[in-house]
Every structure is written in structure tokens, then in C-alpha cells.
Amino acid sequence: MTIDYSGRVAVVTGAGAGLGRAHALLLARRGAKVVVNDLGGSVDGNAASSAAADAVVREIREAGGEAVAVYDSVATQAGGQAIVATAIDAFGRIDMLVNNAGNLRDKSFIKMDMEDFSAVIDTHLFGTAYCIAAAWPRMIEQRYGRIVVTTSASGLYGNFGQSNYAAAKAAVVGMMLSLKDEGAKYDVRVNAIAPVAATRMTADILPEGTPELFSPELVSPAVGWFCAEECTESGTVIEAGGGYFARVQTFESGGVVLAPDGVEPEDIRDNWAAISDMANARPFANSMGVIGKVLKDITA
After folding, report:
1. Positive or negative, the Cα torsion across 180, 184, 186, 187?
2. Would the pLDDT of 228 be above 90?
3. Structure confidence by residue, pLDDT tens digits, 188-202
4. CA 276, CA 120: separation in Å to the nearest integer?
5. Contact of 103 with 200, CB cutoff 8 Å
6. Distance between CA atoms of 167 and 174, rounded to whole angstroms?
7. Other CB atoms within 10 Å distance of the CB of residue 214
8. Are strands 145-150 and 188-195 parallel, antiparallel or unpaired?
9. 22 contacts: CB under 8 Å, gap ≥ 6
């Protein structure tokens, strides 16, 4: 059966261009009523304009869909509340929240001032949290919701010159992994995408000659799946780009139990190969799973 969002209301942040625009158009094309949020600023988050969001709303309406624009910044709690309130005021509910808004202020850490660090954290981490906080009570009350957060290969694996961005993108994964448990019994699913796409933010990052391979439209199907009513995944990260899709998980080695009555740094050194051996690595559903395994191993 074709995935269809008729009767559902979606909010997409940072939807004036690039990935957000592609996400909004996909959801609208399949029947969702869409709130298009975009501050209309530059890549570093400065300046503002309503033109970008208005253009996407016009595009959706001309194709026969329903959409409204909202220009608030996700980087403030008031902004997050206003974005979600726009969905309630215009369409009476919110079913899907796609957290896509972002900025970049790349510098090596030694050259980065804390203003640049906090500006990126405020947008990517707090911006995601503010929007979810505004939507969460509605979704819990209606016992239905689909939330997508946007992480990055930088957050999952690190990248030179992006300590601020990587920190924020790693943090949204931790938030998502906790919210998956809190939302489970209410059918509120929370998942993450790690996109690779040719956008304003990646213009200086992607290898020369490859942008045409990484259309934003080739990432949006992952968002579309996570927003589907039939999708029961939660706490999942998908890497997506150029038609490539892969699930990403954190794994822990089988571990080694050393004598608890006298472990020294030398014991870690001497057992490092066994501690690092990933042959029997496994993921865990949550932190209690890790604690349970450790307790079982040390009492065996």
C-alpha cells in the first residue's frame, strides 16, 4: 500500500530550501498539511527573511496541497512554541515534526570562540528540544506522533573543525534515544536521520564534482518512512544520501571483568586487546540494558 499522510499535519523546520524543502514537498505531495518554518537567514544563522518559507508554501499550494509559513527561530523557546502553535491554529493538530533547521560556524576548536559554539548548540540541540517540547504534550494527549531529528556523520563519527556542530548532533541522538522510551506507550515514535546532501551547508564540504549525486530529494524518503503511521521504529538512526540508506547503531564490546578488589591502570593496559575486541559486540536498547549486562557479568 502507498504511504499516505492525508488528514495528518506536519511541521518541518528549516524548510525554506535544501533538505527541509524536499521533506516538506514529499509530505505535502502525499496528503499532509504542512507548516513550513524557515528563518530565512544565512548559513551561520544571521539575518532573516520570509521569502524562503513563502516560496515553498506557494509551491505546495500550486501543486494542490495545503501549507502555511512561519518564520520564527527554533533557537528560542518562544520560537519553538510559536512554530507548533501555528500548526494548531491553522490545522487543529500536529502529527509529524521534522527537526531540520540548522546553522554552521565551522572553525578549529583553538580558533573558535564560545559565541560560535553556543550559537550552533542553540539551533541544533536546543532548537530541536524547544520544538519537541511544544509538540510533545499534544502528541501524548492524542496518543500519536512521529518525530524526526537530524543528526550528522559529524555527530556520529566526528569531523575536523566542527566540534560545536558535532557536539549538537551527537546530543540530539541521546535525546532521541531517551524520548523513544517515554513515547512508546503513546505511539509517539522518535527517530533520526544523518543526511548527506548537496545544500548551502555542505557547499564547501562535499568532494568536488559530487554534489549532483547528493540531491536532497534522495534523503527525504527516509523522513517519509519515519513519518508513516505504519512505521513502528523508534530510536533508530538512518544514514541517508545519494540513494544510500544504512542503519547506524552504537555497539559495545563483550567486555572483560577484572578483579574488582584491586584494579590498576596496568590491568587496563595488559587487557586492552580483550577489552577492545569487538568480535562479540552488541547494541543495547537503553542504559538499563548495559547496567543489566554489567551486573550479570560481574556477579557470574
Report:
1. positive
2. yes
3. 999 999 998 865 555
4. 33
5. no
6. 11
7. 20
8. parallel
9. 215, 216, 217, 219, 220
What is the mean pLDDT of the segment spanning 36-49? 74
Predicted TM-score (pTM) of the model is 0.92
| Identity of residue 240 | A
End-to-end CA distance of the chain: 49
Q: In terms of residues, how long is the chain?
A: 300
Strand 67-70 with 237-241, pairing: unpaired
Segments of the chain assigned E as strands: 9-12, 33-37, 67-70, 96-98, 145-150, 188-195, 237-241, 244-248
- What amino acid is encoded at 235 in this protein? G
Q: Radius of gyration (Cα) for the chain, nearest Å? A: 21
Task: Provide the grid cell at 38.
Answer: 524557515
Active site residues: 165
Buried-state track 157-190, b at ≥16 Cβ within 10 A, e below 16: eebebbbbbbbbbbbbbebbbebbeebeeebbbb
3-state SS, one letter per residue, for 148-189: EEECCHHHHHCCCCCHHHHHHHHHHHHHHHHHHHHHHHHCEE
